[in-house]
## 1
Amino acid sequence: MVQENNFSHIDFVRLSDLLNIVDSASMDEETYIAKASFIRETLIKTYMPPKYDVNLKIGSDEDLCTTYRGYIKFLTTDLAYTIGKKELYTSNGQRKKAFEKIAKEMIGRGYVRRLNLTSCDHILTER
């Protein structure tokens, strides 16, 4: 998009480049998929404040709670035939807990990105 429109003042930085852990220019799609979880975990470990409590934030911020519930709804429908396969979980409760955990991780990553965007001059992208 930047190149197509000749935007000279916009740069996109991939998470892997920002963290200096993988050279994204040499990464094909298969390598990216294999390293994506590691890159996201490193992002959280590097930038998440030690005392950030996602459960407390969800419980005290109505907008964030709504976002969290939306993530769970999305995960329930989107992952119903992949990670949500009944064979992977012994109960619906176990499946629900897995989706809640993923939704909380998504909230955490969003928080880290927001922090990073307010303190830098570039936009983070995953791919």
Note: Strands lie at 12-14, 123-125.
## 2
Amino acid sequence: MLTRTARPSTSPTPPHYPVDMTASPNPYTIRPAEPGDAATIARQRSLLFRDMGGITDSEAEAIFSASIPWLQDLFAKQGYAGWLVLHERNIVGGGGVLFRETGPVPGCNRIGRWGHIANIYIDPGHRRRGLARLLMQHILQWAKANQLDRITLSPSGEGRPLYESFGFIPAGEMELPR
């Protein structure tokens, strides 16, 4: 897991930032994800795990099916903010932030807001055009404007250099194997 500590911002909290991207000759745009996009995000999530080489196609389908109600619930509880990358009118990528409150810790005696960046995915035909970088810039601008105290992510090996270029560093988290 990589982490980045955010500094509180005095900026207003906009619902999203419209961004026009010209990473390739054709225009790309980013739009906020909506509850009706849960199946699209779930599909991208399943393809992300499959593309990392850790699961089979049938396991990816199981993750897809299980992710839809989970994402719908997160949207309903305002526990997830997501964005989709469009090429013309086709969705070609996306990503989001899962929210969590943290208790008071040394140096911060209030309840904190923690965001975990997840589901960063760009369709293979649109990769290597700077879209993941532009999506991350968008997400980090949003996180700053929304005053998240801590931002983490769990990178793939391929994505690690991108996230490190934004200042993410390895964090000392441990996991209990199942």
Note: The longest strand covers residues 90-102.
